[in-house]
Specification:
Layout lengths: L3 E10 L3 E7 H7 L2 H5 L20 H18 L8 H13 L8 H7 L4 H10 L4 H6 L5 H9 L6 H7 L5 H14 L8 H7 E4 L2 E5 L3 H19 L2 H22 L9 H8 L4 H6 L2 H11 L5 H11 L5 E4 L6 H13 L3 H4 E8 L18 E3 L5 E3 H4 L1 H9 L2 E8 L6
Helix pairs in contact: 3-4, 3-10, 4-8, 4-9, 5-13, 6-8, 13-17
The structure holds zinc ion.
Length: about 400
């Protein structure tokens, strides 16, 4: 059905050695401007403020997820039953699953009235994008790929493999983020894991011989969440951005002209169907306007942009450390008295679990647990089989509450 390249194209990769591309079609998608844009968006945004080598892009992760999908096709028993069309849907969904991410995604989603998942769908389905034009060479493919990423239920096996507890997205980003942050707990024997997986009746199962690898996969996820992804300093950095976005919104509402060129950004805030403006936005775009803010006539934008560029981040207090309540009261009163308090003071909380993470899009029972197949054919939930995973579930829910603030809230 699809033209294969005469010679397999390879991308050098520090995690896998080589990432191979066999189809011209996939290469065209990789070369599309929407996928190339991901080179200009860092995977971990503010995390680089703590782990200074975490500079890898969403492009490298997208290629990695595509590669993991290829490895699943080659190594997991039962995947050979997929037809070529289904294999293509799987590979494209893995490659494109993050295409809707904006720069510094977390802060960005706070300001837009949409999520990166919705933007992914819009980019894939909009006839104006190169990605859509390439996918449309195969009738129905844009809708099929968008449907898999949005979990519409038409291709349940592929949907599970693209996003669930054990999917090609997580398999790539855990190893990749561990590698680029230098964290040692994210190294997982993925090849071994794949070889112990098996598809039975359209469901992903894991043999008992793979349980140790699964345990180490979930343990590393647990550590990565709290040591890396939710690091308080990287959160402080994101809050600076959120605060700038808030200020931009407030000024625009009052019709105050922002003295920096942020037209595409404002277009997207006004209308998130404006894909053309959305594609314009990347880390360089945001870093560019923050640099302009350093000379802004607005004191808040000026202060926040200096803080952002010179790493003068918000201070923080962890409530679990039982800080002096008088100090907290004073701080809050100071924020309330200052006209700028809402930009310089935050009560922030994050919560997460390393396993069975609640996700409104993944509400099916099957997706919420990894299944183990015993040698006698019996199928059990992983947490029933593994005492380690069982205790991880009961102990890994964490809620962290912190106050972030500038000591001087005057200007
Ligand atoms: Zn991803």
């Amino acid at each position: 059905m699809l033209e294969k390249l005469n010679r397999t194209k390879v991308f050098r990769d520090p995690i896998y050695g080589y990432i191979e591309v066999e189809y011209q079609f996939i290469l065209d998608l990789i070369d599309s401007k929407e996928v190339q844009r991901l080179r200009r968006i860092r995977q971990l945004s503010g995390v680089a403020m703590v782990f200074h080598t975490a500079e890898h892009s969403r492009f490298t992760h997208s290629l990695g997820a595509y590669h993991m999908a290829n490895l699943v096709l080659r190594n997991v028993e039962g995947m050979e039953h997929l037809n070529e069309y289904e294999k293509i849907i799987f590979l494209c969904s893995a490659l494109l699953h993050d295409i809707g991410h904006g720069p510094y995604s977390h802060a960005f989603e706070m300001v837009l009235s949409t999520t990166h998942e919705d933007m992914t769908e819009k980019i894939i389905l909009s006839p104006t994008t190169e990605v859509n034009q390439i996918l449309s060479r195969i009738p129905g493919l844009p809708e099929a790929v968008a449907g898999v990423i949005a979990h519409r239920g038409k291709y349940p096996l592929i949907e599970t493999l693209v996003s669930s507890q054990l999917d090609v997205d997580r398999m790539d980003y855990l190893s990749r983020d561990a590698y680029f942050t230098g964290a040692t707990y994210g190294t997982i024997d993925m090849q071994r894991l794949l070889r112990t997986m098996k598809i039975v009746d359209g469901k992903v199962l894991c043999r008992t011989s793979g349980v140790h690898t699964l345990e180490s996969y979930l343990m590393s996820r647990y550590h990565m969440y709290f040591q890396v992804y939710y690091h308080p300093v990287s959160r402080a950095y994101e809050l600076l951005l959120e605060s700038m976005y808030e200020r931009i919104k407030d000024l625009t509402k009052k019709n105050v002209r922002i003295d920096a060129n942020i037209d595409s950004f404002l277009n997207v805030i006004k209308n998130n169907d404006d894909i053309e403006s959305y594609i314009e936005l990347d880390d360089a775009y945001v870093n560019g306007f923050i640099k302009q803010f350093m000379k802004s006539s607005d004191p808040v934008l000026r202060r926040l942009s200096h803080a952002f560029n010179h790493r003068k981040l918000f201070k923080y207090i962890d409530l679990a450390d039982k800080p002096d309540p008088k100090f907290l009261e004073k701080l809050k009163a100071k924020a309330e008295a200052s006209p700028y308090g809402k930009y310089y003071y935050f009560e922030n909380s994050v919560s997460a679990v390393a396993y069975l993470q609640p996700n409104k899009k993944l509400n099916s029972e099957d997706l919420l647990s990894i299944k183990v197949i015993l040698p006698n054919g019996e199928v059990k939930n992983l947490d029933e089989y593994s005492p380690i995973v069982h205790s991880l579930i009961s102990s890994s829910y964490k809620r962290v509450e912190r106050i972030y603030y500038f000591e001087d809230m005057n200007g």
